[in-house]
Design a protein that fits this description.
mainly alpha
């Protein structure tokens, strides 16, 4: 109803990249977790985990458990495109966040 599934894919990529990059920059700026107690994998794992916890629950619930409650105009291929876009966005957001954090901080 809203258009082609590729529109949802691109929207998912942009949203995922924006949320993940902002969390990476914000948490690295604040020093969460502390730099002397955590390695880089832990310092990047926390923002990725938080962004996944923010981005994925509703599309996954609409795809699986709340299938009967969702709008009849939302197709499975639209939800698949949203999920794929958000996965790509999280990966790109980590790269963008690290790049911006090294330039800004």
């Amino acid at each position: 109803m809203d258009g082609h599934p590729s529109d949802r894919l691109v929207a998912g990529v942009l949203l995922g990249a924006l949320v993940t990059a902002s969390l990476v920059i914000g948490l690295l700026y604040l020093g969460i977790p502390a730099g002397r107690h955590a390695n880089m994998a832990a310092r990047l794992g926390l923002p990725v985990g938080l962004s996944c916890a923010l981005l994925f629950p509703m599309p996954l619930l609409h795809r699986t458990l709340l299938r009967e409650r969702r709008s009849q105009f939302v197709l499975d291929e639209d939800l698949n495109a949203v999920l794929l876009g958000r996965v790509i966005g999280v990966i790109g957001g980590v790269a963008l966040g690290v790049t911006l954090a090294t330039e800004l901080l």
